[in-house]
Design a protein that fits this description.
Blueprint: H1 3-16, H2 22-31, H3 47-57, H4 59-74, H5 80-92, E1 95-96, H6 99-103, H7 112-118, E2 120-121, H8 123-136, E3 144-151, E4 156-163, E5 172-175, E6 178-183, E7 190-196, E8 201-206, E9 209-214, H9 220-235
Parallel strand pairs: 1-2
Antiparallel strand pairs: 3-4, 3-7, 4-5, 5-6, 7-8, 8-9
Helix pairs in contact: 1-9, 3-4, 4-7, 5-8
């Protein structure tokens, strides 16, 4: 494990202020994370983790996470379009807070649990939470991409989640700036730059078209995020 990932792990444990059995961490580090992080099941919240979340963020944090888990579990059978609408509305209700104010760092990608517990995040956090939630609801990974765009009116980089049933189609855009889900071709205020998911990394040529550049893990913050998600799964276990 490289030094940057080690720093991420240390920071993560400090943030949650949780002591984890060394044996559990050692086991996790031995098996690595590349195979585990492909899992998309809803992360259980153990009594240990629930108590820590409650202490750090209050009772409302637990209610938000419980609502999120219920949303996933109770809507497995609805149409994909309805899943997109439901998930987009759910996360867009959380307040926008930039990383510097929220996490005291210039660029931080939060896990869905961190976003919900802290009740705030920026565009990357919203897009990431929507991605993992829809994956847990059974939407295939090939149909979802985290997409970096330039928000033309705001004149800044921005991240959205896009969905396309088939590669090359005009994707639908899930955006924290708009509750309405629209096609990428209709979002003339967004200029696509590149996109990625657990299976690949693509450079945008135009809306709906892209050239593959490599693996999603080539994006450092994405790789670090997946490590944190696996650490949350370790913390979600109760130890007697």
């Amino acid at each position: 494990m490289d030094s940057r990932l080690s720093v991420i792990i240390v920071r993560f444990f400090r943030q949650w202020n949780i002591l984890v059995l060394y044996a559990s961490v050692a086991c996790f580090l031995n098996i690595g994370f590349s195979s585990v992080c492909m899992a998309v099941e809803v992360m259980p919240v153990s009594s240990r983790l629930a108590a820590q979340l409650q202490q750090q963020y209050g009772d409302n944090a637990l209610r938000r996470i419980a609502h999120w888990q219920n949303l996933i579990e109770r809507n497995q059978q609805i149409s994909i379009l309805d899943k997109l609408k439901l998930v987009n509305r759910f996360f867009n209700s959380i307040q926008f807070v930039n990383d510097q104010d929220h996490w005291q760092t210039g660029d931080y990608w939060a896990t869905p649990v961190e976003l919900l517990a802290s009740n705030g995040g920026d565009c990357e956090d919203f897009a990431i939470a929507k991605y993992f939630t829809l994956r847990a609801m059974g939407v295939p990974v090939a149909q979802l991409r985290l997409t970096y765009v330039k928000a033309i009116e705001l004149d800044r980089a921005h991240m959205v989640l896009t969905y396309a049933e088939n590669e090359g189609e005009d994707p639908l855009v899930l955006d924290n700036l708009k509750n309405q889900i629209m096609s990428a071709s209709s979002r003339t205020d967004l200029d696509p730059v590149y996109s990625f998911n657990a299976e690949g990394l693509w450079l945008a040529k135009q809306r709906g078209e892209a050239d593959r550049l490599g693996n999603g893990n080539d994006v450092t913050l994405w790789r670090e995020l997946r490590v944190k998600i696996d650490l949350e799964r370790v913390l979600a276990q109760d130890y007697n």
